[in-house]
Amino acid sequence: MERFREAILEGAPGEDIAAIPLPDSYRAAFVKKDETEMFAGLSTKEKDPRKAIHVDEIALPEMAPDECFVAVMASAINFNTVWTSIFEPLPTFGFLERLGRESVWGKRHDLPYHVVGSDASGVVIRAGSAVRGWKPGDRVVIHCNYVDDQDPDAHDDSMLASNQRIWGFETNFGGLADLTLVKANQLMPKPEHLNWEEAACNALCNSTSYRMLVSPNGAHMKQGDVVLVWGATGGLGGYAVQYVLNGGGIPVGVVSSASKVKLLEALGCEAVLDRAEKEYRFWADEHTQDESEWRRLGKDIRALVGEDPDIVFEHPGRQTMGASVFVAKRGGTVVTCAATSGYMIEYDNRHLWMKLKQIKSSHFANYREAYAANRLIRLGRIQPVLSAVYPLEETGEAASQVQYNLHEGKIGVLCLAPEEGLGVDDPARRAKVGEDRITTFRRLGA
Ligand code: NAP
Question: Which fold has domain 2-205+365-444?
């Protein structure tokens, strides 16, 4: 891959990049099928991504006609890489086996190793014979919606396709590597004013937050809506707060430290709750929730913004869902995409039906939504929430930061990019958007 790296850093034209021979193998971060039992008997907290994630050379797969090879300059950690590396709730090799049974091309994914990673920025180095919109030399970011376009259900909202998958989680050959294999319909133009690692960190969380809040497929927020955002400086929450502010809403951000409160204020979020300082105890014990604590949260929100949330942006799951359903306004919406603290959810249904609230499920984003969210990044209307950068060799350490909630926003990973700060193609736009705004999380993160 060294020749590709040099050509990209020199700004070589697409024809030159297309003429460089492909390698037989490339460096990648992966988990191994024969290690899925390595954490047997341990609690979730004791399962350490650093032990499960390996970085080594793997064989180059064959490329299908509708696919591209992308030289990855930078990638990012998502929580799904944490799930894969601790083999919870299931080892992801089951997903690869199922994909392997689906088609001849699907078979390539069923391997004894799983290359992880669902975000990347880089350069197209080969395009399959059926690819129309992209060619070698194109600078791209990659979204993770992996869809079979021959499935009729994929042609309205592609997230409803029966075999919709997340690249690098439910497929092999993910983005935490020097090279990745993607479908052409996962590609989007790289935001020209961002460097490689800033560009790489957005697609998964930014698109997910866009669908949850902005899209008619999600909560479809309107001007003036009060939106309670859990984990408001996390991967999803850092974008969610920006969407609420952009759309004329009123965010109420929940975080867990004084430094995160400062970060939220720098983003422009005036109503902030520090859940560590407030010591909310929504669960009296493992089996019993405490409604008086839900009520206390509701009062705290009213004290800040004078009313109940029209929308609750949910992802912590078991720990918070009861409270989220309780505090949502009459007729309001709880939009959920995850359950970090546990997926067996309990809430008091009386508060849902008597007050005509709804729970809306959401999962990643279709191509149109991901493209719209990427456009807002390109326009400088949404900023990357990159707070730290690790080399590919330290993917396990980077994932463990996310596993133990030691990070803010997104953690980037340098793959072929030899150092931080490279790849800005439009410095004038960068200056116009503002260095301080682009780097808020990098400057103020712990
Ligand atoms: P993240 O960067 O770790 O941020 C999550 C934030 O949630 C943390 O910063 C933490 O903030 C807060 N949090 C964690 N546990 C909590 C608890 N028990 N109670 C209240 N707040 C809690 O992760 P992320 O990237 O935002 O992802 C969050 C979840 O969504 C993960 O489970 C991930 O797998 C999932 N996800 C799903 C999709 C999808 O398409 N379905 C897409 C992206 C992510 P404070 O400590 O500051 O409060």
Answer: Quinone Oxidoreductase; Chain A, domain 1 (3.90.180)
| Ligand 1, CB within 6 Å, residue ranges | 78-80, 204-205, 208, 230-231, 233-237, 254-256, 260, 275, 315-316, 319-320, 337-338, 340-341, 363-364, 402, 405
133, pLDDT greater than 90: yes
Q: Which residues contact 249 (CB under 8 A, 6 or more apart)?
A: 221, 222, 223, 224, 225, 226, 227, 243, 311
Domain 219-361 sits in CATH at 3.40.50.720
| Residue 446 pLDDT exceeds 80 | no
Report pLDDT digits (tens) over 334-344.
999 999 999 99
- Ligand 1 pocket mutation, candidates 278, 281, 405, criterion most atoms within 8 A of CB: 405
Residue with CA nearest ligand 1 atom 43: 205
Question: Cα(341) to centroid of ligand 1, in Å?
Answer: 9
Q: Kindly state the average pLDDT of the residues 38-52.
A: 95
Domains of the chain, by residue range, sit at 2-205+365-444, 219-361
Cis amide linkage into residue 89, ω under 30° from 0: yes
Asked whether residue 305 carries a pLDDT value surpassing 90, the answer given is yes
144 Cα–ligand 1 center, Å: 18
Q: Computed from CA positions of residues 72, 75, 78, 83, in that sequence, does the dihedral angle turn out positive or negative?
A: positive
Mean pLDDT on 44-71: 97
pLDDT beyond 80 at 76: yes
Give the span between the Cα atoms of 151 and 147, in whole angstroms. 8
